[in-house]
Enoyl-CoA hydratase
Amino acid sequence: MSFEQLQYAVASHVATITLNRPDRLNALTRVMEAEIRLAMEQADADPGVRAIILTGAGRGFCAGMDMDELAVLPPDDIRAQQWMRPYDMNRRADYQTRYSYFPAIGKPVIAAVNGAAAGLGLIMALYSDIRFASKTAVFSTAFAKRGLIAEHGIAWILPRVVGQAHAADLLFSSRKIAAEEALGIGLVNRVTEPEALLEEALAYARDLAGNVSPRSIRIMKRQLWEAPYQTLGQAIADANQEMFLSIQSADFKEGIEHFQQRRPAAFTGE
């Protein structure tokens, strides 16, 4: 599949999705929004892909919605059915909406934030599983400075990542924070030199693709994203059931055998 506003490449079992409007700091358009979803679905359906990296071309990750489009955006676009279609009928409805579908992808999504991540750009990073940032990355919610509100579930996800007080600060003030502060409050997992960002993200993704069970990651990712809706007892019951199934899986057998035989793993995801 070819794309107009992003680049899509697969190598070493890792799909890299690169937002490609560098002259506009990869500001989001409705075309790009649709293409990101198609690219994510393509990577999820590809058995040759075991991890996904989302990054931006040039100096920006994603500077939010393109202001030219935002100025003429009809109010009812926010609820348009074309954006709200279910991704996976087996996943909870909360993870089927316009931007919250990243958790429904059965593979780890790693945001490699190379520059400005504002508004919707920050939301995409938050719905990713892991976030790497360049030292040049800058983060901002931006909404309050545009007369908007906490969009697309950011009032739910941001406090779970950085805590209630940090979330209130970032939402109310819309101030910009640099990568080191983002690391300090837990917004990102790792900060790198700008020239090393993509290679470090790729190295991490390749490690996941080559050395751990795709089946284990798929189940663990579902567990992590389901946990906010469960009691401890429900999470334990779910884990017990999944443990029963995992012990019968081909990946469990391979996990034991490659350890005993002192050889590289050859997981199949089954």
Remarks:
- The longest strand covers residues 6-11.
